[in-house]
Design goal:
The protein is an alpha+beta fold and 268 residues long. It is built from 12 helices and 8 strands.
Length: 268
């Protein structure tokens, strides 16, 4: 895998091909928005005179706000593979919120109500969302795009919420520790009743702790498949906490639509 492909990160499927079709740059959020925002991302492409490209993404447990030609939109957590087609030339600014970080901006209810939905940003932020989008798309640099998008978030006046740090830390622990395979064990680590943990995730993250565990394992499996070479799927299944290779294959196939060995072959 090339350096440009690796830089796309987990979740971008078949990154070797993707890196030839678009660029993805990540930026730290403005300091005052860091309690809410994970990072800002800018995708640019120029496919004029070339075929359109459809990119598949295996989403993370994060809400995103995107400013694009079709208008600004809030993307809830997609529990399936997300596909997006790009053509011609263009750019998109995205703001990826920390797990739980979108809660102060969303007064309509639990973050889980956004799952699998794309909501016009104006429905949440009002008319200012369209004005911010116009400023983002008129900007000539990543920094200017981010400044315009950040202004919309600041105007919303989000209040600090210590629960964001709590749930973000729990998600980070899930991602970093493949030995955490049961929600009950996770609840014990953080000293929370299991039902309380489930409610926190529904309200702040949007998906269950079990879903986050499963998705983290699938990200790792896809990264291994995309790295090239021969993958010992049985050993990988054990490392990722699956009961056996068949369990990994079923989970991978149910989510990505193809078995892991076929996915790896398609990327070569």
């Amino acid at each position: 895998m090339t350096a440009s492909a690796r830089s796309l990160g987990a979740g971008v499927l078949h990154p070797g091909t993707a890196a030839t079709r678009f660029s993805l740059n990540r930026h730290r959020p403005p300091e005052d928005l860091a309690p809410f925002v994970d990072f800002c991302w800018v995708v640019r492409w120029d496919l004029r005179g070339e075929p359109a490209h459809e990119q598949a993404i295996l989403p993370h447990p994060n809400v995103n706000l995107a400013f694009e030609a079709g208008g600004p939109a809030v993307y809830g957590i997609d529990r399936r593979v997300f596909a997006r087609k790009i053509s011609g030339a263009g750019a998109v600014l995205g703001i990826r919120f920390r797990p739980g970080g979108f809660r102060p901006f969303y007064s309509a209810g639990k973050i889980s109500t956004l799952n699998d939905l794309v909501v016009p940003a104006g429905d949440i932020f009002g008319p200012a969302a369209d004005r911010a989008c116009a400023a983002v798309l008129a900007a000539s640099s990543d920094e200017a795009m981010i400044a315009a998008g950040a202004g919309l978030l600041r105007a919303a006046g989000p209040r600090p919420d210590p629960v964001i740090d709590q749930v973000a830390a729990i998600v980070d622990r899930i991602t970093a520790d493949p030995e955490l395979r049961r929600v009950a064990s996770l609840a014990d680590v953080f000293g929370l009743p299991e039902r309380r943990l489930q409610r926190l995730f529904a309200e702040y993250v949007g998906v269950s702790p079990k879903w986050v565990m499963r998705r983290a394992r699938l990200h790792e499996a896809a990264l291994c498949a995309d790295a090239g070479g021969n993958v010992d799927w049985a050993a990988l299944a054990t490392d990722l906490g699956y009961a056996d290779q068949a369990h990994l294959t079923r989970d991978f196939t149910a989510t990505l639509g193809v078995p892991p060995s076929r996915y790896a072959a398609e990327g070569r």
